Amino acid sequence: MTDCIFCKIIKGDIPSFKIYEDDKVFAFLDIAEDYYGHTLVVSKQHCTNILDCDSQTLNAVMHAVQKISRHYVEDCGFQGVNVINNSGECSGQSVMHFHVHILPRKSDDGVDLWPAREKLGVDLKALHEALRMK
Question: Residue 58 CB: number of other CB atoms within 10 A?
């Protein structure tokens, strides 16, 4: 796709701080600098998000996410990672190219990605019936 910023980064038209690359995946530091080590793992094949990518692309991206995450924990001094995917604008996806965020974590980093929320008070039995795959 010609106007996709991630496609341009993959092609080298836009510089990036590459962390990892193989034949199906490209991973680089997010320039937002919002979290220390925030890494984007993108498919080289352009697809919009997890909802329209093929299974081989999804598997390749997730394999790379695991490989990079292990590297961060085993070799770079982090204690864990958050792995996040936003699919669709309503979920916060801002670049319409399939990608997964890795946020390397340390126990004292002050990041709270799951702030406490009040219970919604939904009927879980009814919700289960509405959402389960039949």
Answer: 15
